[in-house]
Design goal:
5-stranded mixed sheet; alpha+beta; single chain; two-stranded antiparallel ribbon
Length: about 160
């Protein structure tokens, strides 16, 4: 089993009054542009949920609206959703996995085809990394390292 040095923010780094570009860590989700929209959105949501749980202080405090209803905190450091071909996504994932200090949360195709989680894990255990057919990969790490991994990719829906 592999253990990860999960990047994290410290409590004093959470500065919600500054632009997201001032954050030490950068977060992107790269999605396979060839996947149907419903599966794409599911993959982004699932990898984002796992990332939010893994990275300390990624979510900021919430606040009330004008009617007094409370809204839970969102990622204060931002998150860009980028697209790539299946081949590009696999290459970005492979490079990110090999990059120290970078968290990689992926959504293999198998995660979307099984309705029983243990069956997904069983298939995952028998699948090599290069054969995962990931639908999305969430990456968090030092800003310059993550930017270098994803610099040629465009925003989802961008031109």
């Amino acid at each position: 089993m592999t253990t990860y040095d999960v990047p994290a923010f410290t409590a004093d780094e959470v500065v919600t009054a500054e632009p997201t570009r001032s954050a030490r860590l950068k977060w992107v989700v790269v999605v396979d542009a060839g996947v149907p929209a419903g599966e794409m959105v599911n993959a982004v949501a699932c990898t984002a949920a796992a990332t939010g749980a893994a990275v300390d202080h990624l979510l900021a405090h919430g606040g009330p609206d004008a009617d007094g209803a409370h809204h839970p905190g969102l990622p204060w450091a931002g998150c860009s959703v980028l697209t790539a071909s299946a081949h590009e996504l696999a290459a970005v994932r492979a490079k990110a996995v090999g990059s120290p200090g970078v968290l990689v949360v992926d959504m293999p195709r198998a995660a979307q085809t099984h309705r029983v989680y243990d069956e997904y894990l069983a298939e995952l255990a028998g699948t090599a990394g290069e054969d995962l057919a990931c639908r999305a990969v969430s990456i968090v790490g030092p800003r310059n390292r993550v930017a270098a991994l994803t610099k040629r990719l465009g925003l989802l829906g961008g031109s």
